Amino acid sequence: MKKVDSTIIKETVYILAFTLIFSVLMQAVFLIIGKWNYTILLGNLLGGLAAVGNFFLMGLSVQSALGKDEKDAKSTMKVSQMLRTLLLFIVAVVGHVAPCFNLLAVVIPYIFPRIAIALRPLFEKK
User: Fold this and answer.
1) pTM of the entire structure?
2) Exposure pattern of 17-26 as b/e (b: 16+ CB <10 Å)?
């Protein structure tokens, strides 16, 4: 197994940091509207870990696809996306079925990495 590239680690830490910030904001919103309970916290933890894990696994897929020819790289990325989507779906189902999780709090963190990526240009050094 190849060593994880430092860029993947750096970017995953960036996504993790923003996921934590957005998670705290989400907790605050649930608290302000009077809907907060422990299921919100547990759901947020589950969804946040799934979102960050999904991003990390995507990075590993890209790293492994870089050393392959175009056809194999495309196939690797396609299978990776399918499996990662399945993983997120399974996490959402667990969040729905298990009474200790709030489904909304599980699913909302899935968009946190996208927001962090959209905000990335604001934090780049020029």
Assistant:
1) 0.92
2) ebbeebbeeb
